[in-house]
Design goal:
This protein is α/β, with parallel strands linked by helices. It has helices at residues 37-43, 62-83, 107-114, 134-137, 141-151, 197-200, 215-218, 233-251, and strands at 18-21, 28-34, 48-54, 92-96, 126-129, 156-165, 174-178, 204-214, 227-228.
């Protein structure tokens, strides 16, 4: 299973996939709009807008590279939010998914810890939630997110989670933002219901970074359920989580 739309095995240029080299820090961005049911079915992705930032050396390139990535991600998320006619005063929920007890799946928790809110202010309109996984709670993630959205009268939701990739070179190096929401567990073949505008009743955006790869993608003789992650996973998760949190904080100001 794949989480990144450009790993769907199709020639995306036929569908308007646009790739733009930044010219700095080896950063390349790409975008695709999936606007009809037929295309969505062919690609295996929900309808919506997709944006990918590939930065193969950003862990090596220092603070200036990180600041550039934060700026790009923030601008793109702000663009998506504005395109949905959402306002600064609207109530937003950050749904930070994954398993905080497994490093490669803890991106959501890392972002959760770094998202800024003013919980004591009566004017606070930013809320964050880290629901953990079904095997720890006995409650499906989508049900918990739906309850919070309805209970808190949320206007839109931003979902953050670790992704899977089929390319070892992209582990921790690709950021994907979508307007199509997310299906928790899809990358590890646990097919839940999607968290998106259709199921939640409000716009749902998603942000993810691949930190897991199936060993079978590297060696066909590997067990089909064996998942690998980078050796510096703790440091990489911390860095990527900080970048996403800062970008999202900027985007919703």
């Amino acid at each position: 299973m794949f989480d990144l739309i450009d790993e769907c095995g199709k020639d995306l240029s036929e569908y308007g996939y646009n790739v733009t080299p930044l010219g700095q820090y080896d950063i390349v961005t790409a975008s695709l709009s999936v606007s009809d049911d037929q295309t969505a079915e062919k690609l295996g992705f929900e309808k919506g807008d997709y944006f990918i930032l590939n930065a193969p050396r950003f862990y090596e390139n220092g603070a200036e590279c990180s600041i550039k990535i934060i700026q790009i991600l923030s601008d793109k998320m702000h663009e998506f939010i504005k395109a949905h006619s959402l306002r600064r005063k609207d109530r937003v929920l950050f749904a930070c998914l994954g398993n905080p007890d497994i490093a490669a799946d803890s991106l959501g928790k890392e972002v959760f810890d770094n998202i800024s809110i003013d919980a004591l202010s009566k004017k606070n309109n930013i809320f964050k939630f880290c629901p953990n996984i079904y095997y720890s709670t006995g409650i499906e993630t989508i049900d918990m997110v739906e309850m919070v959205i309805k209970c808190m009268s949320i206007n839109y939701c931003i979902i953050i989670d670790s992704l899977t990739t089929s390319s070892i070179s992209r582990l921790g190096n690709s950021f994907q933002i979508t307007t199509s929401g997310m299906t928790p567990g899809s990358g590890v073949t646990r097919f839940n219901r999607p968290i998106n505008q259709k199921t939640m009743g409000v716009p749902c955006f998603s942000v993810g970074v691949p930190f897991m790869i199936f060993a079978e993608d590297l060696d066909k003789s590997s067990p089909p359920d064996l998942i690998l992650s980078p050796k510096d996973i703790g440091e990489n998760i911390s860095h990527a989580g900080m970048i996403i949190a800062r970008a999202l904080n900027e985007a919703i100001k």
